[in-house]
User: Fold this.
Amino acid sequence: MSWWGKVVGGTFGFILGGPLGAMLGVTLGHNLDTAARSIGGAKLSPGDQERIQMAFFTATFSVMGAVAKADGKVSPDEISLAETVMDKMNLNSEMRQAAMRLFIKGKQDDFPLDEVIVQFRQECQRRANLMRMFIELQVQAAYADGDLDPAEEQLLLKLCQMLGFHESVFRQIEALVKFSMGLGDGSYDGGQHQTGNRATGSVSGKAAAYAILEVTPQHSQADIKKAYRRLMSQHHPDKLVSKGLPEEMMKLATEKTQKIREAYDLLKD
Assistant:
């Protein structure tokens, strides 16, 4: 049974406390912890895979709502991006409704962002690659309308700091996301094909490839290969799932590895 099935079925003796558990419970219309205690089941501690999957799902969509609202408004593109993520995850109707409710919760003024991120980091138990994937999804949400508002940037930098990432990591993630979304020259048309000298979502030149692999023309082929292997390891879908990425998000991780491989193929040739 998947983590979602166990949440709905209440087969965990203890699910999630804190703000993440409270929000997930609200999306389902009941107190998960109370329901689970009444049924009984296996106890999950912070760091357990299925518990992390619950935390990742809950934090991803609620914080995505907060990021979208950071500039004072939520654009249609930002809502569409959240729905696109849901589509790629092939969520069933129940999970999709929960994800959208979490997104809406994150937009509210009383959303406990700091508490959510603190708990999310605790649940991840120093799984840096998993937290990096979380940041990548939030950066995608911020760039959904084709631009990064200063308020959104400050919020994303705050998230990175709270999760233990230096600003340089954020800039590396930003470069990968921009080129993945077809924002190579800063222009964006909602994901549609672009013409002229604009990026189309594929790696359209060496500059993009260097940015994605986090190297420069001064690096040797050996350095480029090392960078490629490191990034592939960070984004390997099976490895991320084993660390707590919900299986429904495997397609998103696979897309990242395809983009990294495309960049490497361009530079090694």
